[in-house]
Amino acid sequence: xxxxxxxxxxxxxxxxxxxxxxxxxxxxxxxxxxxxxxxxxxxxxxxxxxxxxxxxxxxxxxxxxxxxxxxxxxxxxxxxxxxxxxxxxxxxxxxxxxxxxxxxxxxxxxxxxxxxxxxxxxxxxxxxxxxxxxxxxxxxxxxxxxxxxxxxxxxxxxxxxxxxxxxxxxxxxxxxxxxxxxxxxxxxxxxxxxxxxxxxxxxxxxxxxxxxxxxxxxxxxxxxxxxxxxxxxxxxxxxxxxxxxxxxxxxxxxxxxxxxxxxxxxxxxxxxxxxxxxxxxxxxxxxxxxxxxxxxxxxxxxxxxxxxxxxxxxxxxxxxxxxxxxxxxxxxxxxxxxxxxxxxxxxxxxxxxxxxxxxxxxxxxxxxxxxxxxxxxxxxxxxxxxxxxxxxxxxx
Length: 396
Fold this sequence. Notes:
Number of strands: 14
CATH class of the largest domain: Alpha Beta
């Protein structure tokens, strides 16, 4: 660890997320890795802020190796029932939150506030930025579903757009998402920078024997992603039924955070007569994912929508697994169809099944594509590079 005098010279970098970092999900994986890289490279002093309703006063704790602040940050009320009550609650709590955030930024000499997943909870930072433009650099990171919500005009996105306008810089994890965000909020197009996510070399690229203890037996293909409609597990079930007709021994493993589509997936697999060949694992700790990928025959991602390059595709490349995916969002910025994977159109179970069968029926082709994907990932994607780019952008 650096001496205190030397650490005082490093920029202080506050990562803000609207939920607990222990939850499974791509946004949390990004934040956890940025924190670790800032610390391990000794290029910044990181900390985390999480809005918690039960914390009327700012609290500081050391949680999972991270300095973590907790504070009630009432968001502006949205139109709907009990609007007057919501407004009164917001007006009663907002001044306290604003003052405590200001004191945190001043007392801890925070140079950069990097908020992940823009939303109404960031309203207080927007006010502080307007009142004290030079108090901190405000970097806002979008990840995909947040941009989709703005495109669809979901509740609260008007405040999200306001937050983005007051940011000094905005990051996205793919060029495709940069174009979508610039279309949704054209006023910020000049602020948008694409920074690809990375892959942890210590977690994937430099480990042998990852398949030990995965808990799966026999041959299987796997999908990793939250159980939401955008991830397309329902499309995969229809494709898998066709695959199962040719390869009777193959199984399907669905891994992800519990979501609205989960009950449908379970009932669909039963109705289609393939429930005995489908295994569902929910809300796994991140360290349990690598062995499951390592042991799989191939990784399939039939997304209807993606913002950046999904982390699971980087992870698949890291453990030399071939990929079949849809040509959605930033996926095509990593997967070159026919070279390091196969791409199919979204919402097309027939094409998806054909692509899966193409690889299962040709082990040489599958191995070649897996090796090519490994080369692409290990040569161009690392959290070290990602963290350095975030910090460079923040300190411009």
